[in-house]
Amino acid sequence: MNIVIYLVLIATVLASGSLVFLIRSDDQKLLKLLLAFSGAFLIGISFLILVPEVFSKNARLAGLFVLLGFLIQLVLELITGGAEHGHKHVHEEGEKAAPWLLLIGLCIHAFLEGMPLVSRFAKEVQHSLVLGIVIHNIPISLTLMGLFLHYGCKKTKAFIYLGIFALMTPLGSLAGMEIENNIAASLDLFFTYSMAVVIGIFLHVSTSILFETEEHHRYNIQKFLTVCLGILVAFGVSLLAH
């Protein structure tokens, strides 16, 4: 995996987290639109690129691993409270353990997303996955930074935590490449199944975003158009990938 892609993944998280200082805490409109776009884009690339790639392989258990990814994300949200889709809310001011729990849960989430970024998949598929992660990380990073500051972290410490999160996807990719380079070829299906797990994670996150974008499960025209734009961009990416 190109070092430039790792730098893009890291820089996107840090830059997105910095947006918290430009957006008023009581103005959630931009975050909701970012969430709607990212959710639509994730579900778009999942069905248009990642699902066809995984199910084109001779992997009979691929569907089971998609479900496993869905369930893994469900468990992770017990720790993160839904920060992956921008809906983590704080109910207790004295919730001191929350920054650590939040960071651990999101680091596991990001690490798993990085594992399929290996050479066994075509570059077009890798780049589509990277783009999905980058777009997905924009609202996550914004939400995460806001929560760290809310919990009383100083700016420096909050950026350190955000930096740790930013490193997790590249580290997941490096771990996947280490497995690819040093373990027997009998693990060929490992990466197909790891991609299936990521699809399950993406599907859980994207459907949560799309159903929770509006408080009462209603979409106004602006959010509807944003969702359509996200799907349209995913369709364009899928055409380029093929």
Which properties best describe this structure?
mainly alpha, 8 helices, globular, 242 residues
In short:
By secondary structure, this protein is an all-alpha fold. It contains 8 helices and no strands. It is globular and about 50 Å long.
Can you tell me about this structure?
By secondary structure, this protein is mainly α. It has one domain (27-241). It is built from eight helices and no strands. The protein has helices spanning 3-18, 29-55, 62-80, 98-114, 123-150, 155-182, 188-212, 221-241. Helix 2 (29-55) runs antiparallel to helix 7, helix 2 packs parallel to helix 8 (221-241) and helix 5 (123-150) packs antiparallel against helix 6. The protein is globular and about 50 Å long.
**H/E element string?**
HHHHHHHH
Uncertain segments are: 89-97
Radius of gyration: 17 Å
- Quick one: overall form? globular
Termini separation comes to 20 Å
Q: Helices and strands in order, then pairings?
A:
Elements: H1 3-18, H2 29-55, H3 62-80, H4 98-114, H5 123-150, H6 155-182, H7 188-212, H8 221-241
